[in-house]
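Thread: Modeling a multi-component assembly for a lab meeting

Hi all, long-time lurker, first post. My supervisor asked me to bring a structural picture of a complex we are working on to next week's group meeting, and I have zero experience with this. I have the sequence lines for every component (701 residues in total). Could someone generate the structure of the whole assembly? Inputs are pasted exactly as I received them:
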Amino acid sequence: MKSLGSIRRDFAPWNDPNAKPYIQFDNVTKKFGDFTAVNNLSLTIFEREFFALLGASGCGKSTLLRMLAGFEEPTAGRILLDGQDLRGIPPYRRPVNMMFQSYALFPHMTVENNIAFGLKQDGMPKPEIASRVAEMLKLVKLEQFAKRKPHQLSGGQRQRVALARSVAKRPKVLLLDEPLGALDKKLREETQFELMDLQQNLGLTFVVVTHDQEEAMTMADRIAIIDKGEVMQVATPAEVYEAPTSRFVAHFVGNVNMFEGKVAEQTANTTRIAGSSGAQIVVDNAAKTAAGADIVFAIRPEKIKISSKKPADAVNALEGEVYDIAYLGDMTVFHVRLDDGQMVRASTMNAARITEDPLSWNDRAWVSFRPDAGVVLTR
Amino acid sequence: MSNAAVTASAPATNSDKSILARLGAAFVGRLVIIVPYVWLLFFFLVPFIIVFKISLSQTAIAMPPYTPVLDFKDGISGFFAGFGALSFDNYAWLTQDALYFNAYVTSVIIAAISTVLTLIVGYPIAYGMARAPATIRPTLLMLVILPFWTSFLIRVYAWIGILKPEGLLNQLLLATGIISQPLIILNTYTAIFIGIVYSYLPFMVLPLYSSLEKMDYSLIEAAKDLGCPPTSAFWKITFPLSLPGVIAGCLLVFIPAVGEFVIPDLLGGSQTLMIGKTLWNEFFANRDWPVSSAVAVILLLLLTVPIMFFQQAQARAQEQDK
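Re: Modeling a multi-component assembly
Sure thing. I ran the full set together rather than chain by chain. Output:
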């Protein structure tokens, strides 16, 4: 674990203190009556970034997108796009386009007229519109469907039309509201990569709203995890997964085991945590914490080794009984009940077809992990 | 052996039953379609044939006041002998007197203007209802339907009280000083327009509301997002998508308005010329059943033939869409 950087190694403007922010939410609050959808939120998005807003439904992520598109005005705070305050600018004058969750294709227009709609609004000359529409149709591989109406298309084709329509005007920013939500799993995976290619090829800034963590992890350069109208963490997918800064984020993205306890002893590099029932573990990278303070060690299931005998060299090894086994093909997930009663989830890749150390229900087993395999959380 | 036969025949009877059940279900299915057709046959087609037959007869001072009366008094041969006396003279008569032609044309023009006015008044109402919070929509719908709970005739009479020279409207306008002379509205075409727009407004609002309410509001947002200002978004998205409602509403207003009798009679005074009034006069004042029947048959053709062509064109357009 040397680096938790971006997958696109040459692209990390958020680490550059001189990089100019492209989209800025400055202490933005949005209230609907008594309900606070967005609470004093600040966020910075850079040019050409693929940015994901991830959160459960009703967390305020769609409201953020709608404020950027101009369908809602912030109750307080301001939103800047390329240095320009967007307050009071109606949606039809903003240089952003949105791809709607429902696609919102105009049912009385053909595919090509749907795509041409925004271009006609801009008063683009007819031959240019025709060539742009043809280009867009080619981009989303729908050339032979130009004359069809939306109701004559499949769900995946409609999604492509919606995408083509929203990028046809070459907006500064493309907003995508749950772009893959209505597609089935297989199509969704294919489309994820197509969206990434499209973003790279067109060089646009994408802001995508999703509740699907896998989708956000796959596509985004950075993810903002939103809860109750507040940003919990903004980081690259790897950072969010490997270095969550709060219990909420650790729980929200992927599976996690939490060891709760108090700080027993702290040295320069290690912290010893005493669990409530006596079991002790030693972990790395803890911030300076007073002895006796409440502390949590969060560790992902695949970072935990499971074995039938106590590993000789393990710093942390806890004994328990196999409670449940889920065989998933590529991996196996073990649920182990430790002797102090805590349940631990450990997963093993099935790299070989035959397991060396077979474990069964109710077997005694040891779980072990390195001190740097997880993170210490205080909030 | 017998056991085997029983078990073997059991499935056969089962499938026989299911065939019977299927036939029964098919019959019930047909019946559902047949019932309205039987209704139309007895209460539309048969009366129409009777009216059509009367329109081919001649007036007579008799009971009923026309001849020949097709009956079996003189046996079956007498019944068929009556056919010889039928003629299209009454239709020829309609073309000879400009009164009828003028009445048809005026009626169609008045109905068309009233339909457009009803659309202009009804569209904003329907739009407002469709965009209102879902919780108050049923109440708004109720308010539109509420006038139907009072007699149509009484509501039209009430307009006399409002529109007459010393009526409520003039009193209000005189009292506020907007006018110094009472407006003459009653017994003019304006009064007919007011009466038709008022009476038929729900028939316009309801189909419009149902087509506007179905519309996905995110379409308007998408249009705005693509650079379309609100007014332009209305004409490019909302209005075309509400077109089925517009057409249904216009037909529901236009068709009865052409043959309207009560409103022109009560609000339009004696000098207004509409086909419904002409028909009434022929029937009750002149007691000329054959001519009034001919007027009715022409009116029916005038309304149904264009609508049939229109519907066919629409069906063809829909077929192409699929």
